[in-house]
Structure formats: structure tokens, C-alpha cells
Automatic annotation (TrEMBL):
Designated name of the protein: Probable membrane transporter protein
Pfam families, alphabetized: TauE (PF01925)
PANTHER family the UniProt entry points to: MEMBRANE TRANSPORTER PROTEIN, TRANSMEMBRANE PROTEIN YFCA
KW Protease (keyword) present: no
Family: Belongs to the 4-toluene sulfonate uptake permease (TSUP) (TC 2.A.102) family.
Positions of transmembrane segments: 42-63, 75-94, 100-118, 130-158, 195-216, 228-246
Source species of the chain: Methylobacterium ajmalii
Compartment(s) where it occurs, according to its Swiss-Prot or TrEMBL record: Cell membrane
GTP-binding as UniProt keyword: no
Membrane topology summary: Multi-pass membrane protein
Record keywords: Cell membrane, Membrane, Transmembrane, Transmembrane helix, Transport
Amino acid sequence: MVLPAPSVLAFTGVTFLAAAFRGVTGFGYSLVAALGLGLLPSAQAGIPFLLGADLVLTALLLLDRRGVSVDWRVLRPLLAAGLLGAACGGPLAVGLDETTARLVVTVAVLGAAGVALVRRPPAWLADRRIGIAVAALVGGLISAFAVGGPLISAWLLASGAERHRLKGTLAVFFGAADILGLAGRGLLGAIEPGVWDLVLLYGVPTLLGFAAGTLLSARLSPVAWRRLASGGLAGIAATGLVQALIQALGKAFVALGHG
């Protein structure tokens, strides 16, 4: 896979910033990095790269036992539903054409970022049945398009999950969905050889970004951390909206041209 130099530089910056955001907040790598899928020749190669990179960052996060704990009581039913969704999501996404795949990713980014901006999720969202349904949906979205995490975050917050266990609980959920998404694509033969080119090009800046974000997180006050997280999500939502509009208009013009 040969990429134009400007695209390489641009996506290097995107994945660095995405990993730094994950290092600071504990979430959001794929949400940010997916905005740069248009810089890659193929979304069907880019999505497995995002899944793999997110899985590595999740492993690094869980290895830091000082600030991470997991609420297994809450996680078990969500994990079962999420894995079921992940098993279905990957195969469905593999059959999409490039234009539709990019558009769906953009819309999913927009929706997830918009949900994440809600500071106090409504009380009705805490219903256990809704949580199971959300977990299945998010598992499918992660497996298929590597995005959707803030939806399950909103449910956990609404259900009264302990905030100090939230990061670890989400990390295990996301990691399991990443693994199943990659495994499903592998079994279907849908992991393109170009994925390894992306790993070689962007693996190092991704890890450097995560390290920079982790160091920055340790120096931020709680107020500064909230401002950075909320401001970043607002920027993601705005960028996702612009991308969704551009891609929808482009697809409409193409359809009119063939009409």
C-alpha cells in the first residue's frame, strides 16, 4: 500500500493526537483516529489497524494497576451482550463498499461524540435492559467500525457505576470487542495485507502519543482534565458533523450523476 507523503504526515498527526487523547482521558483513540480514515486508501484496511492499535493501548492501560480497577459485577452481563454484538458487527461491515463504510464510520463518530458530551445522562437510561441493548450495539459498532465507546460510558454513568472503576471496566469491554472484531475479520479473510504497512508507518507515533498523553494526564488538575476532555469531544463532534455532511452531499451528487 503506497500512500502519498501528505497523507502519511497528516495521518501521523491524527493518530498521535488520538493516542494522546486516550492517554489523557482513558478513552477516545478510535473516536479521534476514525476521523482520519479518509486519509487512508482503504477503510477496510484502516479499521483493523484502529482495532489493533486500540487493543494495544488498552493493554498498556490495564498493565498500569496503580489507577485501574474493574467492576466485574457490572461488566459480566455487558460483556456477554457486547461480544454477541461484536460477533455480528464485523461480518456485516466487511460487505460494505468503501463509500458506505466511510460514511457509516463518520456518522457513528458523530453520534458517539455527541452522546459523550452529555455530562449527566438521564435517569431512565440506567435500566438494565437498556444497558444490555447498548452493550450489544456498542460491541457491534466497535467490531465493525472501531467506534461507539461513549454510548456504553453514558449507560455506566447513568447506572451509578463507581467512577474510580469506570476506566478499567471500559478497557476490558473495549479490549474484548477489539479482539473479537479482529478475529472475525481474520476468519473471513477480510484483513488486507496493507494493514501491516499501516502498523509500520503509524505504530511508533501512536505509542509516542499515548506516552505523551499519559504524562500530561498526571500533571492536569481535575478541572483542567474535564475541560480538555469536554473540549476535545466537542471538537470531535463538530468535525464528525462536517465530515458527515460532506460525504452525504458527495454521495447524493454521485447518485444524481448516475440518475
